[in-house]
Amino acid sequence: MTEAVAYRPESPREERRLPIRGVDYCLYQWGQTDSPLLVYLHGWSDTGATFQFVVDALRAEWRVIAPDWRGFGRSSCRCTSYWFPDYLADLHALLEAVSPQAPVRLVGHSMGANVGALYAGTFPERVRAFVNIEGFGLPDSKPADAPSRYRAWIEAGNEPLTFSEYDDFGVLADRIRKRHDGMGMAEALFVAKEWGKQEADGKIRLRADPLHKMPNPVLYRRAEAEACWSAATAAMLLITGGQSSFASKLPLVGGAPKFAATETVVIDDAGHMPHFETPVALAAAIEDFLLRTL
Fold first, then answer.
1. What are 223-246's pLDDT values in tens digits?
2. Cα 257 from Cα 241, distance rounded (Å)
């Protein structure tokens, strides 16, 4: 792998640290402070830094802030477990810091979109508009699943949890590219260097706490999520990938989140990760929607 294939960002990125609820959060920032604010929430085992491709494709001037969730990317966390409501509380504290008065425009992907959708109904006055990228919630749990779920959680705590390791960034980039059709090697290498960190032994290990792989002992109650979605007052744009295996399972999940005002865009060539596979089309869909909220 050579520098000749390196991705060259068009929009310069800044990093800052912000203590949030006992976690040393890393925030990535693009644009001028006097531009309209857009807050991006990344998905599971991703990082806010990989929103770079979309930022580079935006046409208007925006101030973009993208945090790394606790225990992902460069946000360190001395956590012994991860509880989903913590993400909502972290987001609330973040918004109080970066936009204490004005409601914000949220863009979330996958897990980040699920956090954003719940937050939009919990604090509807804090969300002006919401772009949901492939965040569909989960299938409703059955009470009968509780014993096996508790057991899986307890037994998983008795075994060491790890993510895969790689010989070099090129190997990780190859794996990323193979999983995302249409992604160039330069972009895949950029993601690999944001996802991974070279350790003293030369191996590349992911910037993610393996404790995130623990089974959740708390059953998912979809009716509670739907109650939050129903309480949201922001307009929502739902973006799905035409090739997404997640979107294809929507009937099994129970349908996509619905707000009072919901628009839908399907990006035909994208899978579950349109910010990797079709960033230009994704940027256009996001911007066409959000420009109407200015």
1. 999 999 999 999 999 999 999 998
2. 15
